[in-house]
Design a protein that fits this description.
This protein is an alpha/beta fold and 445 residues long. Helix content is 37%, strand content 14%.
Length: 445
């Protein structure tokens, strides 16, 4: 029996609505990582009507299995986890907002502090970018200094993008290339400085040159944490009185019950947790030592919707489920399994790839200058087979062995097609539209 493939057209409701959105919403949507152009320009389904487990149904009624980003890393327990949804619904029925404070705030603070013994205080936001802005503001208030050093991706706010005022390519190795710091005050020039993960000499030169308020960095992303490097950064920050901030928006709760730094023995002064904390509901936390965090009372940091009840309710229930199921172990094992599938499929088809990333944030790359063309083709062909898929994978506890096995079968077919056309110098003609964007671009139509 021949396999039935899903069909796609630029006239489908999803692509049509996306084209309309680009005319009335700058950039088409609120998150760069969800733009259709980043996956399959012209044909990406773009909009969902339902999501449960790992199944996503688009507005044209087609259902896909998500072996890609799982809400850009937010849903490590799967979409619409019933226990979390029920807790949120109960909160909605009681009332999500009031003139009085939300009792979930001290409960969640206590829970997160108990998980991170070095931490003594917490603040909450609803998004990762604003959480990082809060962390940097507090660090500057605590030290009385202006300069910040960064290593990794830390959001869209002025304090971060100001790096590109001094060097237009300053963020290229940390983020998508091509980001113009338009709208960022020129007075922030030279207040933000980048350093390379693992290069302690360049880091030392940076902290010798500038009076830093904070060092903001990801514990790891493309590989396992470099414990020696992290330890040296910690020691040198302590010596200089610099606030060390670990941004674990992506890595938190994926390979440990809390921040990934817990697996390294290196403790920061402040920590940002987000994405997976609320399993799809908006919940972000900034933890820190009392000596640093108390400075928040000397500067103005306040927002109405940080006090609503849904985020903290979802976070508390999510943490409860994570603790009882040891979800971080499950998703690490699933990610490791999918990495092995990638390697096996590549070996059997003769398509050269390199595999990287944490097990719980797995990635691979085609070993060819046409990587992006092959990546776009893979997304296109897996979509026909009912999968949201690419060269990265955010595992969740909802990725069952049976579904992983079926994913592997479809992946073998697509890799086979890539292998068959590997010597084809016009392989891009196999794409049904343009190849995916690799950089930030203005969307004009």
């Amino acid at each position: 029996m021949s396999k039935q493939f899903l069909s796609f057209s630029i006239e489908d409701r999803g692509p049509s609505l996306w084209r309309k959105a680009k005319k009335i919403i700058p950039g088409g949507g609120m998150l760069l990582s969800k733009r259709s152009e980043m996956f399959l320009p012209d044909l990406w389904p773009a909009y969902y009507s339902a999501a449960r487990g790992i199944s996503v149904t688009d507005i044209d009624g087609r259902t896909f299995q998500d072996f890609y980003m799982m809400g850009v890393g937010t849903n490590s327990l799967g979409y619409s986890r019933k226990e979390v949804d029920r807790a949120v619904i109960r909160q909605v029925r009681r009332g999500n907002m009031s003139s009085l404070n939300n009792p979930g705030e001290p409960d969640l603070a206590d829970k997160l502090i108990s998980m991170h013994p070095w931490a003594e205080m917490a603040r909450f936001t609803r998004t990762g970018g604003e959480a990082m802005a809060v962390a940097v503001r507090i660090a500057r208030a605590a030290t009385g200094r202006d300069h910040v050093a960064v290593c990794g991706y830390h959001g869209w706010h002025d304090w971060y993008l100001s790096l590109n005022l001094e060097n237009p390519e300053g963020l290229d190795t940390l983020l998508l290339p091509g980001l113009e710091p338009l709208g960022v005050p020129s007075q922030l020039r030279s207040t933000n400085h980048a350093f390379t993960y693992g290069d302690i000499e360049s880091f030392q030169a940076l902290i010798d040159q500038h009076e830093l308020a904070a060092v903001v960095m990801e514990v790891a992303r493309g590989a396992a944490p470099d414990v020696e490097f992290l330890s040296q950064v910690r020691e040198r920050c302590s010596r200089k009185g610099i606030v060390l901030i670990f941004d674990e928006c992506s890595t938190g709760f994926r390979e440990s019950f809390g921040g990934l730094h817990m697996n390294t023995g290196v403790e920061p002064d402040m920590l940002m947790l987000g994405k997976a904390l609320g399993n799809g509901y908006a919940a972000n936390a900034v933890l820190g030592t009392a000596a640093v965090m108390d400075s928040a009372q000397r500067t103005f940091i306040s927002s109405t919707f940080w006090t609503e009840g849904i985020g903290t309710t979802a976070a508390l229930k999510t943490l409860e489920i994570m603790s009882s199921t040891r979800s971080w172990e499950m998703i690490s094992q699933i990610g490791m399994q999918v990495k092995q599938i990638w390697l096996q499929v590549a070996d059997q088809t003769g398509v050269p790839i390199s595999v990287g990333g944490l097990d719980a944030l797995a990635t691979f790359r085609f070993k060819d200058e046409r990587h992006n063309i092959f990546k776009t083709f893979l997304t296109q062909e897996m979509l026909k087979r009912g999968y949201l898929a690419g060269t990265s994978f955010y595992p969740s506890t909802a990725h069952s062995p049976a579904r992983i096995a079926r994913y592997a079968e479809s992946l073998m077919e697509v890799f086979g097609a890539i292998a068959a056309g590997w010597e084809d110098t016009d392989f891009e003609k196999k794409l049904s539209g343009p190849e995916a964007h690799q950089t930030f671009r203005r969307l004009s139509n």
